[in-house]
Specification:
Order of helices and strands: HHHHHHHHHHHHHHHHHEHHEEH
Distance between the termini: 130 Å
Number of strands: 3
Largest sheet: 3 strands, antiparallel
Strand order of the largest sheet: 1-3-2
Helix content: 55-70%
Strand content: under 5%
Radius of gyration: 36 Å
Structural class: mainly alpha
């Protein structure tokens, strides 16, 4: 078997391909019986290479199937043969023949852990063909069959590339729930390593598209912040400026909560924000405990917060997002009023919000339901009370504290009276 190689030619005396294959099959049986895995690998590779060389596709598929099914075959030999067949796939120009070979390879490798990487790669090629044929649903379906995160022999980088491709195809086929599930298979700690920036940017851009679909603006802001902190982006001023602008805009569009407030506090300390004065100012507006006038804010920032020519689209290029921003301004003003007032009339409350009474009441109720503020409305008197209702435990603790204070005072008074009596008796 020392003279066997993948490009073993037909000898002059062997006029037919079958004669050459038969001799190789005899040799394959001998090497298999002798336990020579390396020579057996060379024979199997030579058989499929010979069929490919003479372009006998039927015979090639038959021998791939039969050789993989034989009992006692070495895993190394099957792996080498499958790897050689995988190398043939991109070389085949005829689409139908390429698809047939891919399907045969997918069939013979199904359930075999030692060739799971090769199966994954030809499946990805099949998905690319389906996508090129404008059938993304089929492409997404075949690629979803691969649970690459469980492959022990595949490199981490290749795994991430596969998962990103699965995410992309699921998103394009509008399978947003599955896209969300698949995205959780990637650990963001992987992006802390070297040479991962390209994959990191791809991942966060796909997550931005997904989060925008769900209108999760805080998540979008976090995604842009990760892009902003990438070394390659930080090295180019135009790129980091665009990323930081999106961080600010989506942050102020996000609903108020502890997480949003914490991120706002961290972003405002970024020194690069000073180079974007309008974005810095609008961010500070939401960080101060002062009422905002929506008409003035929109007039001042409407042109400066939109994207310039050649830039990626700004969220405020869409009129619907200005409506969202207006709602965030109203919510901010409600929190400010709850901070400064304990009681306020409904009419005065609505005037400060620049809304009618019905709309102001609706917005206040939304904030109460979200537990952002605590308020009660007395509709008969038209009074809003922002005092927080205490629970039973707090009332009992306060009563106990007050009782202890009273008893201490009574003890002090009793001591002083006794002292006075003693002084008078002596005198």
């Amino acid at each position: 078997s020392s003279g066997i190689n993948a490009e073993w030619p037909l000898r002059p005396g062997e006029k037919k391909l079958n004669e050459a294959i038969d001799k190789l099959l005899v040799l394959e049986k001998q090497t298999r019986g002798a336990g020579d895995a390396i020579s057996s690998s060379k024979v199997l590779v030579c058989i499929v290479a010979l069929c490919y060389k003479v372009q006998d596709w039927t015979l090639l598929k038959e021998h791939i199937t039969s050789l993989c099914k034989k009992r006692g075959h070495f895993k190394l030999a099957v792996t080498k043969m499958v790897q050689r067949c995988c190398e043939m796939v991109p070389e085949i120009e005829d689409k139908e023949r390429k698809m047939d070979l891919i399907e045969v390879l997918r069939t013979v490798t199904e359930g075999k852990i030692y060739v799971e990487n090769e199966r994954a790669r030809v499946t990805r090629t099949l998905a690319a063909i389906y996508e090129k044929d404008d059938v993304p649903e089929k492409a997404a379906k075949v690629l979803q069959e691969l649970q690459v995160e469980t492959f022990g022999t595949m490199e981490k980088k290749e795994k991430v590339e596969f998962i990103l491709e699965q995410m992309r195809l699921c998103f394009e086929t509008k399978d947003y729930i599955r896209t969300q599930i698949i995205s959780k298979k990637i650990s963001i700690k992987y992006f802390e390593g070297a040479d991962t920036e390209e994959l990191k940017l791809r991942y966060y851009r796909q997550m931005i598209d997904l989060n925008l679909h769900h209108k999760e603006y805080l998540a979008v802001s976090k995604n842009y912040h990760e892009i902003y902190n990438t070394t390659s982006v930080k090295e180019e001023e135009q790129k980091w400026k665009q990323a930081l602008q999106r961080v600010v805009l989506y942050l102020i569009l996000a609903e108020y909560n502890n997480e949003q407030s914490d991120m706002l506090a961290r972003i405002k300390t970024d020194t690069n924000l000073a180079k974007l004065p309008y974005y810095q100012n609008v961010l500070m507006c939401f960080d101060t405990a002062e009422l905002l006038n929506w008409s003035i804010l929109k007039k001042v920032y409407s042109q400066h917060l939109k994207s310039e020519t050649g830039e990626p689209a700004s969220p405020l290029d869409k009129e619907e997002n200005w409506d969202v921003l207006q709602m965030r301004v109203v919510e901010h003003n409600i929190r400010v009023l709850a901070k400064y007032y304990t009681r306020i009339s409904m009419q005065h409350f609505a005037d400060l919000l620049h809304l009618d009474s019905k709309e102001a009441e609706k917005r206040l109720c939304e904030q109460v339901v979200k537990d952002t503020v605590t308020a009660k409305i007395d509709r008969l008197d038209g009074i809003i009370s922002f005092t927080k209702q205490k629970d039973t435990e707090q009332i009992l603790n306060a009563w106990s504290g007050n009782l202890n204070s009273v008893m201490d005072l009574i003890g002090n008074v009793n001591h002083l009276i006794t002292k006075e009596r003693m002084v008078h008796q002596v005198s």
